[in-house]
Design a protein that fits this description.
homodimer; alpha/beta; Rossmann fold; 6-stranded parallel beta sheet; 10 helices; 9 strands; 49% helix; 17% strand; elongated; DNA-binding
Chain lengths: 213, 213
Amino acid sequence: MAKYSKIPEATIRRLSNYLKCLGDLETKNEKVASSALIANICNVNAAQVRKDFAYFGEFGIRGMGYNVKELKRHIKEILGINREWRIAVVGIGNMGSALLVYKDFLKQNYKIVAAFDVQPERVIGHISERVGRPVEILHVERLKEVVKARNIEIGIITTPPQEAQKVADWLVDANIKGILNLSPSPVRTPEHVKLRNLFFTSALDNLVYYLSN
Amino acid sequence: MAKYSKIPEATIRRLSNYLKCLGDLETKNEKVASSALIANICNVNAAQVRKDFAYFGEFGIRGMGYNVKELKRHIKEILGINREWRIAVVGIGNMGSALLVYKDFLKQNYKIVAAFDVQPERVIGHISERVGRPVEILHVERLKEVVKARNIEIGIITTPPQEAQKVADWLVDANIKGILNLSPSPVRTPEHVKLRNLFFTSALDNLVYYLSN
DNA sequence: GCTATTAAGAGAAAAAATTAACAAGCTATT
DNA sequence: AATAGCTTGTTAATTTTTTCTCTTAATAGC
């Protein structure tokens, strides 16, 4: 690992993608996969795949390929998702509710251990209607207290846009380590709190650009 | 525009981001913005901002900066969102419901004109409870017919993962032009149907990597 | 056990993207 | 009308990322 000083951001994005594809391969009971196969599934170059892995170690067997299960484990370790990450969701509208019952999180060791809203009582019927309430909805004024008590490291913002920055500030104040903002309004955090904004419209913008050009 | 033969994919991603930030500036009633200001807000280099725009034309005034409104218009035109894009959402669970009432789409000229589910009757109460039903939920067997009748160009998949590929195939069969897959399972489409997979866990994976390293 | 085949890993080369530097152009002021 | 002060657009330099080529290692068949 001392061999490489800096790992491309794009490599990290691809690792996450490889992981998903390997999950699919595992489902299909494939034991080994060559870089060429992975490349094909993920729409990248085979040399790219090998190089991406090479940043972190030697995970393959020459002449054979990569052991799917083992490679998954390695990637999870690289990404840091080989342990549980405790998450709070703030803003339990439709989007927040969707996350609370989102099974895929668990596969990746993400666990939603708290949910907040300005009107907890409003929410209850809404969620439980279809899936049962997976976690109690708390009033957002308890945010700081509960983040600490439950060792929460990541906050997901699913409020309306006009509340997003305020909630981000609260999360920062609660000593959260990272924030994923799913509201359509970009938020800012101080240097020490990692942030990802994920906008649906951006994904559509991108799609539409390539549809138009 | 003949000056540049190929535009970086990253530039397109950033354009979408600039657009969001410009929207914010507009809200704050800022009339002009320098590349340095935009760069600061979007966490990129000022030269990058200017270069990104330069691929497509000269939108600024030397000594002054960029007119916010005008620049927004230009970017929208570049991305192809200066006209209405008609969208179908397939799978009206929590996530699908969230999209149906997602106000931000309209700002970007995205209009959801159809919604499909395997059990339309199951859905009705679920959505209308909080926002009123914005669009009738149809049985998914009517997909092809309705996509054609309503001139739908984009499909968004919000089904459970095990249905995602099947729905993608249906959308392709219905002559859809582009697909945004929000289900956690990657899908594939033929060359001529543009595809974007958007995974929540990938955003978290990325966040967690930088939290861990 | 040897050989042919396959596929990873390493390093070099090529391509692409970002950043820096600067000339050109606009505005305001005197 | 000339000049000073900014900020863009552009070219050049640098850095980063991707791709190619070649070497090495493992496996399977004979």
